[in-house]
Amino acid sequence: MPNRTVFFISDGTGITAETFGNAILAQFDMKARHVRLPFIDTVDKAHQTVRRINHTAVVDGKKPIVFTTLVNMEILRILQEGCRGMLLDMFGTFVQPLETELQIKSSHRVGRFSDASKSKEYQERIEAINFSLAHDDGQSNRDLEHSDVILVGVSRSGKTPTSLYLAMQYGLKASNYPLIPEDFERQQLPAALMPHRAKLFGLTITPERLSEIRHERRPNSRYASIENCRHEVAQGEAMMRRSGIRWLSTTTKSIEEIATTILQDIRPERLSY
């Protein structure tokens, strides 16, 4: 059973509240039931939220933890005065002291994605996602020169999720290209990648973990066999070393850790936040 119920409340998407809250909760060895309540942008919704939090407090017999990124002060005040949870107002904690220090009033804009259609950064992010999808798993060799980074590695080593994360979070045009048996036979990188060696970044993985992942997709196949996985990983790493490609193992790393390492290495001039 969960130790606590944790609410993430926002008048926007709630992504910021949940991301920040989870980063804090990760410091504690506890089980929690997560409830995200986005778009709490009216007084009526605020009162409904208070009733839900208070009902949860009664049912659980413990105070819920409530992370908020509410910009509307009237709505925030309803929660502060009415809810029986431990309320952590992240904007109040950080924005108000910054207003004092900078002597500038914050915009109090609701939501990171307000007026998204008019945002240059948002449009660049969408373009990057479309680019990364079109250049997933070596689907297209066109426009590779426009890639901010090209990920290479054996099949199922984490290239696709990393590419999409880089596109969605940072607006980077991330291509990915699989190393296949024919490349190992030739003992050289695919010809399409040779002109873009400076943009290449390699991903590898332990054969044991790779075999587990591949068995989920193609059970009892040669593709997933531990012998084949050992061969492909060894060949892939040898090719990266010969080609002077920077690379890392994804075996025990999260997508966020992989992406951060890549960003530190390639240091792209254009980053969308």
Compute the average pLDDT.
Answer: 90
What's the architecture of the largest domain in CATH terms?
A: 3-Layer(aba) Sandwich
- List low-confidence stretches: none
Number of structural units classed as domains: 2
Beta-strand proportion: 15-25%
- Over all CA atoms, what is the radius of gyration? 23 Å
Residues in helices, as a percent range: 40-55%
CATH topology of the largest domain: Rossmann fold
Textual characterization of the structure:
- This protein has 273 residues and is an alpha/beta fold.
- The protein folds into two domains: 4-102, Rossmann fold (3-Layer(aba) Sandwich); 118-266, Rossmann fold (3-Layer(aba) Sandwich), CATH 3.40.50.
- 46% of the residues lie in helices and 15% in strands.
- A four-stranded parallel β-sheet has the order 2-1-3-4, with helices on both faces. The protein has a four-stranded parallel β-sheet with strand order 6-5-7-8, with helices on both faces.
- β5, α6 and β6 form a beta-alpha-beta unit.
- α5 runs antiparallel to α6, α6 (159-170) packs across α10 and α8 (207-217) crosses α9.
- The radius of gyration is 23 Å and the shape is elongated.
